[in-house]
What we know:
With 171 residues, the chain is mainly β. It is built from one helix and nine strands. It is elongated and about 70 Å long.
Amino acid sequence: MKNLTLTLLFSFFLIMGVTAQDMEPVELESNSKFSIGLNIGASQSGTDLHSYGRHGVSLTEEANLMFGLTAKYNLTPTLALRGNFFQTKISGDDLNITEGPCYDSEGNETTDDCHVQRGWNYSSPLTDIGLDLEWEFLGNKRYDGNNVFKKTFSPYALLGAGVVLTDPEID
């Protein structure tokens, strides 16, 4: 039952992530140049300590809560500055990997208990802070003659920089 609950919870967050792109931005006032967004979801690391549904580890076993905040300021109808903040945790544990196929140090398949003998595990908080310049090259189509926003499909290009802060605990 626990795996079913976690799978349903993971599916909910995945669906919310897909549909969140269709939601209107929260604006402080009508035709504001500033918008904010709240992000929530799940995170995992894809390492040999967690193999995304392989080796007896469920897809959601090492899933951790992820949340974040996005703030965007429109410089012009086609250029915007966007700041991002995300916080989560990543983790993995050899003791969770119990099924094969497993390979020894020479790459030969073995019947040993995968990585259980190695006994590694880790956990790390992860903070991502970034600043992006967004160029929506068809952005002028989003505004009518009175500078009122219109909903339309419009691709954009992104150039940004960020920093990721971690503090791993390895055992």
